Amino acid sequence: MSDSEQSVYAKRTKAIHYGSLEESDRWHVERKDNENDASAKTDYSQLTTAEYMNLDAEVAKDRAALLEEFERRKKARLIHVSTDDGEVKNALRKLNEPICYFGEGPADRRMRLKDLLSALGEKGLPASKPAKEEEKPKAQQKETNESTWYHEGPESLRVARFWIANYSLARAKQRLEDASEKVRQHSATKAGRMVELQKRIQQLAPQCSQVGDTRPITGCCINENSSLLLTCSLSSLCKVWSVPDCTLKQTLRGHKCNVSDVAFRPGVATDSNAEVAMASCSFDGSVKLWSYDSEESIADINGHVPHRVAKLAFHPSGRFLGTACYDASWRLWDLEQKQEVLHQEGHTKAVHCIAFQVDGSVCVTGGLDGFGRVWDLRTGRCIMFLEGHLSAIYGVDFSPNGYHIVSGSQDNSCKIWDLRRRQMVYTIPAHTNLISDVKYQKNGGNFLVTCSYDKTAKIWSDKTWQPLKTLSGHDGRLVGVDISHDSQYIVTASYDRTFKLWAWD
After folding, report:
1. pTM (two decimals)
2. Cα–Cα dist 499/473, whole Å
3. Which of 106, 278, 387, 441 has the fewest beta carbons under 10 Å from its own?
4. Statement to judge: residues 478 and 359 lie in one domain
């Protein structure tokens, strides 16, 4: 069969149109528009009659709930809730609420307690009478702890305080006369001296670098006439070196533990015999006194055992020795009366460093509690509280002007304090690691030196506190620094077992 035979033809139906097509389309459009208008009018009339009132009621209800929520949040903000997490848990327990939800922290728990108290309104927490009754003993105990108390001291302390008062008054008078003469100098003269000093500091270079011991060095000190250098180390040895060639002159043997600090006694000639000229302290609490003519100690001080003695310093007169001990106290020893005249407490943690004012009337101590205290040696009172460091204080020193104090801390900063105004005057972000020691220039106070665990020592100006010079070259952390009395030398001691002597070119 062919394709033509298989195909089926569909017959189209005929459509008869009356009138024109445009009129028919217009009629259909108008009819549809009329139906839409009628339905819209019907819906609007139904909304205005039945549902419109219900909609207003719901809006008013939502508005009231929103205002109530705002008021509740306002009350929650005004409610004072303790920041102690233990007290927050106790409050939740009294409200019969879970004290902790899964993944809930102290801040979230505190906010939950605020929300609960704001929802309870005036009810709040049930009043507990025993808690109020406990407040009175706590307040009385606080007053007792904060009150100053005294106890009777020995006759040796009275003698020492009278002697210090007479000694410091003459020194203070001389210091004030020198300060007045300095003020009368022409400003151009003072500015010229500062410019010359800064130029000299820029020329500072290492004069000598010496391996001081087989173990890390922990302290260093230069004597009054800048002819001798004293170092100590973790090997329990102390060594005396000549300046500036750094040759070994004397080895002091006697400590049985790590030696933490050394100091020269002021006013003692280098050719003296059988006279206390040096002092050292160690981790086992022993303090030893040395002379120039013997390698063995001529006297031992064992009043600190078993607590570590971190630092020591001689009084400007040379008669007294101050020691900072890890039993949270510091002590004053009279070398003439050969006994301890003062055992002073006040720090909450170990006392690490101590320094005397140039007059000899006051001293400053720094502790691992992050606070420093200035003590009047003539009365025994704490006359200034150094509060501002975020961590332990490892170094303190007095300026020769008598009223500026510098402190170096584990928070990498160095702070300057004014004893006259009894407040901090400046903070130096000095290093990138903890500051282990600080020292003022002894014959003018025009600059100060800080050393740090970041292996550098830095020199800072006294007035503007700007960095003048960075002393770098050690391979280990720096633990000690000192400036000679004539400002000719600066010595730094490091854990790399070496000490460096810096001098002007």
Report:
1. 0.70
2. 10
3. 387
4. yes
